[in-house]
Amino acid sequence: MNKFTFSYPTKVYFGEGSVAQAFAAELGKVGENVMLAYGSGSVKKNGVYDEMKAMLSQADKKVVDFSGIMSNPTYTKVQEGAALAREHHVDFILAVGGGSVIDCCKVVSAQAMLEEDIWNMEYGKGKFPTAGIPMGAVVTASGTGAEMNAGAVITYEEKKWKGPVFGTAASFAVLDPAYTMSVPPMQVLSGAFDTLSHAMETYLGNSDEDNVSDDVALAIMRNTVVNMRRLLNNIHDMQARSNLMWDSAMAENGILKCGRLTDFQAHQIEHQLGAYTDCNHGQGLAVIHPAYYRHIVKDAPEKFTRLAKVVFNVDTAEAGVDALESFIKECGLPTKMNQLKSTVEITPEVLRQVADTCNVIKCGPRELDREEIYEILMECM
Ligand code: NZQ
Ligand code: ZN
Description:
The chain is an alpha/beta fold. It has helices spanning 18-26, 42-45, 48-58, 75-87, 99-111, 118-125, 185-203, 212-233, 238-252, 265-277, 281-296, 301-312, 317-330, 348-357, 370-379; strands spanning 11-14, 33-37, 62-66, 92-97, 135-139, 151-156, 161-166, 172-175.
């Protein structure tokens, strides 16, 4: 194990009906002006918005809505939220949604308390926020694990860049699997694939002694695959949704990263693919992973073999990568660029730009150069 420090800012309320317990314990600690933040309308259709509104009003909160947070939230949306928070003297932000809503609110929280532009501060000066409007998260779509960390992924439209912006971690998160029941099946599977990707990418970092975090990561991967298969059988399986919801949080709450470096090269490529195409995050990862792993499988043969055996019950590293690809197809997730929903036609020129602008990770099994990243992307055509 490498040296590490671990502490956790987010209190988790997990399980059906846990929102009542969470609000009873937490809302008394925050001021009266609450920003209720949500996405493009699912919460209004499934009744979650009305439920939140009623509980906030019972707790004597004044509510201002921050609505329309899109998937792959934009920097413009962050600035809109921060202006709204300032205008209404918001004391507490309640993010109700998936990774996009939660990420947007993390940065709104920090930006609202800053005099300067948060992007310039983080990317220009290398300084990170030290304060933010307190926030809580009610997760309605699982997969990203965004509810248990302070990092957000934001699309800066003019800069054609999708990447991390650090904001505020939620002080509490409600993880009620029942809230995920209305998520469209393909989003459920895309989200779960994102979780699988987080665990694989953490496990494949190159700090490679025998490490307890690897064992935990393998358990998360195996459990994610098992429960995705349960959902293929019965998409309404609450136990499977429940396991996947906790897998999701576990994969991104820092536990798997203890004592080790991580890879996350597939994520860096996908984020830039997202910047150019606005594609779905989990689906972009599904396309990229097998091609990327075929390039690096020989650079970490023991780790890939172990993953193959534990997660997919096959004997060799290469067979593990094939099994991953078959599993992606079994789930009905995309394996080629032309299966992604995109705002532009995905051409070799677009992929060249993605390859030329994505972050290159130095702590994966092997550092790739941009030409090889382009080759990987072209193999996904
Ligand atoms: O916007 P609404 O109407 O709510 O619809 C959403 C959206 O269309 C819908 N949805 C959510 N809950 C629902 C529901 N539909 C019906 N019933 C419900 N209960 O699901 C769609 C996808 O939601 P979104 O939040 O965009 O998905 P996800 O949770 O996958 O988040 C994706 C974003 O998170 C970032 C991604 O890059 C992407 O921007 N990530 C954040 C990470 C983090 N902060 O740690 C890590 C990840 O690697 C990832 O990069
Ligand atoms: Zn992800």
